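To: structure desk
From: M.T.
Subject: fold request, one chain
Message: Could you run this one when you get a chance? Sequence is below, nothing fancy, just the single chain.
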Amino acid sequence: MLDYIIGGTAVGISFLYILNNYYINIMATTNIGSCKNRCGWMLLKTYAVGKRKCLGFTSRFTCKLRKRKLFDNILFIKDGNRLENIRTKENTNLIKQIINKKDYDLVLFRTPSKHGSVDYDIIRLDDAHVDNILKLPDDDEYTCEYKESKCTIISPVLQIEHNPITHKSIELKMIDDKAYADTDVEVDADETKENDKSDLESKREVYELLIEEDNYFIVGNKIFDEPFVRWLLREQHNKILKPSEEYNIYYFDGNINQFKIDNNEFITVHSDLIENGVVENVSDITETQSEGARSDDENHKREAEKANSWSYFSW
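Reply: Done. Structure tokens follow.
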């Protein structure tokens, strides 16, 4: 029996490894939103399902082999960096001091999950949660009541596109199929095109966002906004997201339908659904009516995009 378990685990991990490399290679060399090949999408969905099942099996298997020592704690994060990781037990006064400094853009409460395959249930603390902490007596321990969502997201991938045109500092002129710069250096036109093409491909960055070890799908959580994404990239890939870098996140829902959000959007987790939202910059709002009209236009645009979604196939 043990031989079958070991063999099955090895086959599953090998299958996942092959699909993972294929999947990430496609993401790195292709504009994901323009990929409409049926075979390609079916393979990507196979990867997502295979990864979900393999990770579920291996996590249940490994949790039997290791004894977890997890405690309730609060993470204070700024620009993707962990500022503090404080255990809630007997540290309420210290947590209050950090809150009063207001030197953070993301606060996460982590509590050991009831599920054996997951380490922590992660609750994003908003202003109301923070106010409740400040009202606690110093000798009380902070606890948070929460409800798990029935929804999930599978295999989120973040893609950063860089425009190579902004990196060009020399203007070339075409004379007799030759490209000439002000330096009088002669460059073959075909070679210039190939260099531009390779430059375009090299400016695409792809990062897989790993969300399987912890449970982020808590009712009321706001995830995948910019502070949250900065933290994931720094924690998982040691990637510092620059303010000028724009990105798209592609993901599957629980029914293996595909969706996309950009750096101006986020996801709100509800009990039975996941809702996309748009980040509002209050300083950019000059008139209520004009902002409302702009929001209506954005809603119509998103509805049109859904109607013409490139997620053509679902299981």
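Reply (cont.): The longest helix spans residues 2-29. Let me know if you need anything else for the meeting.
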